[in-house]
Amino acid sequence: MTPIQRFRLSLLLLLLLVGGGTLGYREIEGWGWLDSLFMTVITLSTVGYQTVHPLDRAGIFFTMGLIVVGVGTVGYAIATLTETILEGHLQNFWGGRKMERTIEKMEKHVIVCGFGRIGALTVPALHAQGIPFVIVEENPETVKEILERKYPAVLGNATEEGVLKKAGIDRSSALLVTLSTRVADAAYIVMSTRIDHPNLTIIAVANDSRTEAKLLRAGASKVVSPFILGSHRMVMALTQPTLLDVMDVVSGRDGMGLSFEELVIPEASIFCDHSIAEIAMKHGFRSHIIAIRPAGGKNFVLPTAQSVLRANDQIVIIGSRDEIKRIRELMDRSGEPS
Prior knowledge:
Layout: H1 3-29, H2 33-45, H3 57-86, H4 89-105, E1 110-113, H5 117-128, E2 133-137, H6 140-148, E3 153-155, H7 163-166, E4 174-177, H8 183-196, E5 201-205, H9 209-218, E6 222-224, H10 226-239, H11 241-250, E7 258-264, E8 274-275, H12 276-283, E9 288-293, E10 308-309, E11 314-320, H13 321-331
Parallel strand pairs: 1-2, 1-4, 2-3, 4-5, 5-6
Antiparallel strand pairs: 7-11, 8-10, 9-11
Helix pairs in contact: 1-2, 1-3, 2-3, 8-9, 10-11
């Protein structure tokens, strides 16, 4: 039993004792509810007030029994309260309730399953880009560390029913499964989530090609292999170091604040049915659209200044984060460009 549970039990016992004492005095002495309650409280608190009314023999025995039981119960309650406060359990409890309310209000957030090596690197990147997220982790010590960083988290195993629901899976935009060393658990999470949420973006981590194939069959939208990506970067550092430097710039590794962004043109957007040149001239773009995937298409195409954007087209844009944010806000507006 946890300290919080023991504290709850002691409070319950106190309430039962107060209720029982009040009812006892009312039945034995025939007093009113208020007098019976007052007598019970001063008896349990041992403050030494005189009795409300004279007690008969039965009332005296009842009071002695109430004192014996009450002193033990009150002492237990004080001990559990002290333990709870000194060890920080009460603060953690209220902090946990606050965290639950925060998660309940979240929508279109990303759920990160696992806070191991990959998860611990992924979460700060999400935080830096302002993407809302919730971490699901089964290790209590790790969850404590996560909460100390002020990240929202749910304690539990993502394979267990209800844990992902507690993290808001029904309202989320994506699920990141970073359990690279626990293939069976990762595959189960991917498969069960895909069954319940067929349109959800699910990205998983794999250490090898066999695991990648399993996760794709289980329903993952994408599978990322850190080892394969790392090997590609090593070769690029050897053969194309300048290109690698450019990639570091747009990924934000050098602190310049440039990034790639993938955006979808909303229907009725002011960008719809206008060329890139026209939009750039009217809105003073300082970013560049480097690829377009037409709505319903599978492949990206390299655009020209005369390329026309249509509703639901996907575009890849490179620029500063502030500029891309401005473009996103413009793109979401309806009507004619002005």
